[in-house]
Fold this sequence. Notes:
Elements lengths: L1 H6 L2 H32 L2 H17 L1 H10 L2 H24 L8 H26 L2 H32 L1 H21 L14 H20 L2 H22 L1 H8 L4 H26 L4 H21 L6 H30 L5 H13 L1 H12 L5 H20 L6 H9 L1
Amino acid sequence: MYLSFFRSHKEFVKVTAADLVNRFGDSIDALAFTWLTYDLSKSASMSAFVFAMNLLPTVLFQPLVAPLVEKMRKKPLMVLTDVLRGMCVMLIMGLFLSQNLQAWMMIPFTFLMNTLEAFRIPAGTGFALEILTGEEMEQIMGFKQGSGRTMELLGTAAGGIIVGSFTQWAFLIDGLTFFVSALLIALTRVKEEKKEEQSPSVSDSFQDYTKSLTDGLSYLKQNHLFLILLLFAVAINTLSAPVNSLMAPYLAEKFHSSSQALSIIGILQILGVLAGNYLYPAVVEKVTERKLLLTGIIMTAVLYTGMLIFPHVQMGIFLYYALILIYCFVVGIFEVLLSSLFVRVVDKSYISRATGIFNGVCCAAAPVVALVVGVLLQAFSMQAILAASAVLAAGIGILLSRWQLCYRLNEKKKNDA
């Protein structure tokens, strides 16, 4: 099925290859940044702050730049942002090799790279829809999610060895993947829709921008299914922020583990999500969308409970590995469901704005939570923060399960059938 699809959409092969190369490099980069930050600082708070900087540009800029991106030619923008991100990574590598890299430097570098990504993501979504129709995009979504996770799996497996012994190679590989991605996009032959040739005044440009943004917000506010998806995305990103920001210090302090344990966690996360991506069609036939989304929230509470218990039992780290695998299987189903419904319910003319607004808003709480966690760690133990997170996740899951509007998801499934 997928082979024949790609044969008839050869230019989309280049876009997909660029995405896969990026995912491979990013998985190595993510492990390197996470462990290196903690290794340089020995501070759980610093790890939480860097995690916050990883998400903050998405929150601040992506909803605002999306209307601008929608009016720009996507291809040159994607090439430029990939090249600039590659140059940033090479600069980090140079500082590391010269032994001038300090933990605090990871904060501005992380912020800058993710600011560039805030332009790249909506541009990539819009560019893909210059090649495929919305229906074709939904058809290939499962493959995109699954193949992306496969590359992340390979990158994370390699990263556990590379980061522990040859950290500079992690940065070199990641930098090169950005340059390769830029080259593949540059070679893609796509005739983008012609933009206005006249140069409007600054006043007209601003008015045009604000009109585009407000039109997009007005459309999305009336799209109730979009709002339901947004709510669940906000919930899962908020609740997972503490565990994501504290992963490296948790493994180091509770289990006395090295970067290899972080690599194992990364591999299990990808395997779980990958299984969820591929098994999603079978699961969604038997379980309603509402129940699947609620399961993702409740499993977060279970994960935090396990993190509290496992350090105190024999072979606890292996139980933690198993729970991570199960949790990420649920997350894999959760994310494909969100992606499929998103493409289905949002009109193509609003897709870049919807992508920017969705990504920005659903991530908005995560950096705030990470910053709060970093501050709270100055006064409270990691154990107390994990316990509070477990209670909060359970409470949100119960509230959402009683919200009547969520039943609209089940109605949508019946109507589509």
